[in-house]
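Write out this protein's structure.
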Amino acid sequence: MKASDLFIKCLENEEVEYIFGVPGEENEDIMISLINSKIKFMATRHEQGAAFMAATYGRLTGKAGVCLATLGPGAMNLTTGLADANLGRMPVVAITGQGGLHRFHKQNFQFIDVVSAFKPLTKWNASITTAAIIPEAVRKAFKVAEMEYPGVTHLELPEDVAKKEIELSPLRRIKVRRPSADSKAVEQAVEMLKNAKNPIILAGNGCVRTRVSKQLKAFVEERGIPIVHTQMGKGCISDRSEYSLFTTGINAKDYYVCGFDRADLIITLGYNVVEFAPQHWNKGKDNKILHIDFRASEVDEHYNPDLEVVGDVSNTLWVLRERLKNEPKKNPEYFFKLRKAIIADHEEKANDNSFPLKPQRIVYDIRKALGDHDIVISDVGMHKIWTARMYKTYEPNTCLIDNGLCSMGVSLPGAVAAKLVHPDRKIVVVTGDGGFMMNSQEIETAMRLNLAFVVVIFNDSKYGMIEWKQQIHHEKSLGNDFTNPDFVKYAESFGAKGYRVIKAEDLSKMLKEALTQKTVCIIDVPVDYSENYELIRKLGQEICPV
């Protein structure tokens, strides 16, 4: 067979369902080999969209999402999405074409050393310079991408290698079990938990894995320990739990910081400093910290744990539950007061009828319109902060917020992947007008694939978060204003449905209708971001319950 045929057989062996990408001349043999494959090729309108789709697929399934591009400019367009996946711990395998090996030694048309360019963005990458290594290279790419921490790997297949004749078979895919934590470290953790009077959990990205979430829910309920979620850990236990202190939002003294200040032990679970800097919750560098994760902690002056329990997190939680089952449950009376204060803050303007709409009202109406298992995907901007703070989440991976690379433009491509993974669920994109326009071309991809989801645009005709920060830091701003197209007509130009909110009561009605449509629906919502300044003013006061 041709090497490109073998390459596709190896991808089939890895149980690849979709490849998101843009075809090109140098990957044409791969494309032709896909014609007779059960793998579905999803042509996107930009390689960045393809990478974001692969990342969201990886985040939701735990299996590596796959994206494809040609050499040079195509490969370079993948970089933002790959960096996003790598920092966000999402398994992705990127495939790029390349010119023939005879071009590697000199400068020539569209030729860039892609392997070197991708090295800082990946866990591992390689150029397949001989067809004989294809089975090994593909197996390694998927194994490394899916191992803790999940991340990105990359394979380059030069066009002349892809055409070679070869007789080989894919390598067997074998499941590797994660190692358990050291027993002595677990016993030390048990003693720390026994002695703590006011422990609190900070749950990160590693806790949204299904097995971890299940064990964490049981651990929290049995021990009576309150929990704060990072934005990427949102939903690992239900916000209906009396122990949930909801999610980190703004990097100021928000309510959750009161909990960390009051705690005598902070248990970080599946947490990485990338997703929420420890200086925001351990400014004094004096909090007692128990680190439980798949990997040892990053070195950070504000994050120097007293004990690290390194190994499979779900297994660690199960062992801790067994060791502590006869211990009395904690009585987090202060934290219950804190939860009530947070709920009161969230509900204060949730039904505000003013126009343009308060961001609290928009988030509240979206939450009312969706079920527990439906999915919200947030873009990056001020709306992300409001969604993180206020959107109540009841299941893992039902509110996807990128707080690693934190790249604008991630949400609309993410919705395409989410709908492919969960066709039975309602999907809502929460985005600003800036982020929406960065990858709005993927509306055509969604329409071509007959996918249905709703896009809610927080419209303020500016890069609102950047203006807000400039005003806070300098009392002036520059470079944030722009104009938008008519979003209703823009939606209709793709064959999608468009809605425009002209009074506060419109949104809930439009959401209800849009979520029943079998197409992409775009809702243009004017937003009043003066609430950003009001939030800072409020949090600058003494907000912690006495």
